[in-house]
Design brief:
The protein is an alpha/beta fold and about 250 residues long. It has seven helices and nine strands. The strands form three sheets. It has a five-stranded parallel beta sheet with strand order 2-1-6-5-7, with helices on both faces. It binds ligand 4HQ. Ligand 4HQ binds near residues 92, 118, 122 and 149.
């Protein structure tokens, strides 16, 4: 059993408690398939007031995370940047490359990760230059800190670890429908709000069900996320009816 070890560096370690004890992540941690240690950045502050931020050079609003506590914490937890480093160090930031399922699979294949959570307007650039191996973004929107993105990474990698969902060793992102949106799903009752479950799903014909699901997944992906199919999105072609979302 190859345990994935994840260290988290944050100003708000208390955010991670219930998250790490609940559901898929909680079971992965409980089973020892993923090991998570959360560290308070203020433990590396230099002064009595445990200061971790300062005003930005050049002026402007807000505060910037000062470099000394961050770089010392990163080096204490992962070693100095370079080949001898014990963990892959990731900064969660809107400036990072966009995280996707392939990115999660790559992170899940590491022995050890250090997830660095910024707050305020971000971190001094020298922290990135000296201590960060990779910057990752969970999407093009602005949050107040890197903690929610770090939780997204933890949950995303945990469910890929062999044994967590009953993954044999290489299921998950390599599976048959990977890279497509999942089509519609139904459970009982057979009619709800006047809407019936499609007959094929109640037919007991497993091949027909698989075929129907694959077709619906392809159709939904083509309409909503043509980029996932390597196709151009709406707006790249002139059309009287717009996005194509409602076309047959
Ligand atoms: N933030 N993906 C600003 C994000 C973010 C994102 C994290 C807000 C860092 C300083 N991180 N702090 N989107 O919005 O990763």
């Amino acid at each position: 059993m190859a345990t994935l070890r994840i260290d988290v560096l944050t100003l708000f370690p208390e955010l991670f408690g219930p998250f790490l004890r609940t559901s898929v992540v909680g079971r992965a941690v409980e089973a020892g398939l993923v090991e998570v240690a959360v560290h308070d950045l203020r433990d590396w502050a230099h002064d009595r007031h445990r200061t971790v931020d300062d005003t930005p050079y050049g002026g402007g609003p807000g505060m910037v995370m000062k470099p000394e506590p961050l770089v010392e914490a990163i080096e204490a937890l992962a070693g100095a940047r370079g080949p001898g480093r014990s963990a892959h160090v990731v900064l969660l930031s809107p400036q990072g490359a966009r995280l996707d399922q392939a990115g999660l699979a790559r992170l899940a294949g590491r022995k050890r990760l250090l997830l660095v959570c910024g707050r305020y307007e971000g971190v001094d650039q020298r922290v990135i230059d000296l201590g960060i191996d990779e910057e990752l973004s969970i999407g093009d929107y602005v949050l107040a800190g890197g903690e929610v993105p770090a939780m997204a990474v933890i949950e995303g990698v945990a469910r890929l670890e062999p044994g967590v969902l009953g993954n044999p060793a290489s299921a998950g992102s390599e599976s048959f429908q990977a890279g497509l949106l999942e089509g519609p799903q139904y459970t009982r009752p057979p009619v709800f709000g006047g809407l019936a479950v499609p007959d094929v799903l109640r037919s007991g014909d497993h091949a027909a069900v698989a075929e129907w699901r694959a077709r619906r997944a392809r159709e939904l992906t083509r309409r909503r996320r043509p980029d996932l199919l390597g196709e151009a999105g709406p707006g790249s072609e002139e059309s009287a009816s717009g996005s194509g979302e409602d076309e047959s």
